Each structure stands twice: as C-alpha cells, then as structure tokens.
From TrEMBL:
The protein, known as: Cupin domain-containing protein
SUPFAM superfamilies membership: RmlC-like cupins
Signal peptide stretch: none
Superkingdom of the source species: Bacteria
Domain Cupin type-2: start-end pairs: 43-106
Amino acid sequence: MAKKGVAKAEVLKLIDQAAYQEGAVVSRTIIDEPVGTVTAFAFAEGEGLSEHTVPYDAMVQVLDGEAQITIDGVPNTVKAGEMIIMPSHKPHKVRALKQFKMLLVMIRS
C-alpha cells in the first residue's frame, strides 16, 4: 500500500482520478513515497498554480483540455496527449486555458 493515495495493483482510469469543480483546482495523490509523488489534478478554466520552484524534476502529462505552463518565463501551451518536463530549481506556473486535467510525476531522488 502506498503511504498515501490508492492501493498498489489497483486498475485506475487516470482521467477519473480528479473531478472538475467550478472555480477550483482539485488534486488527488495517487502515490506519495520518499522518492517521488504521482498526483492527478483537475483545473477549472482560468484557474492555476502560482509561480513557484521545487528542488526536483517534474513531468506533467495533460490528460484532458489545454493549459499554459510557464517555465523560467517561457510560456508553453500543452494539450491533451502532450507532456512537458519542468526542470528542478526553475520557476514555473500553470494556468488552465480551458478546463484541463493533468498527471504530475515528481522525482525526488
């Protein structure tokens, strides 16, 4: 069993792991281990995460919709079926251009 999140060996439909809520960002931790995390997010249109940095590389896979992910001042439009790597120690922020869902994989070691 993961320390937080869902049971291991459970079949999951990624797109259903976080539900859209008007005016909100919803997240659900799937795996939370010392070496990294896997988290599903659902963003209402126009919602986002403010600029921040983390000391770990992270991968975002967009499952549904479209977002602008700005990394080190450079905006990137990412759509369903696409992914982007956010390098450690680089400021980044996320904004939903349309409602969107993403899977965030953060590697800590």
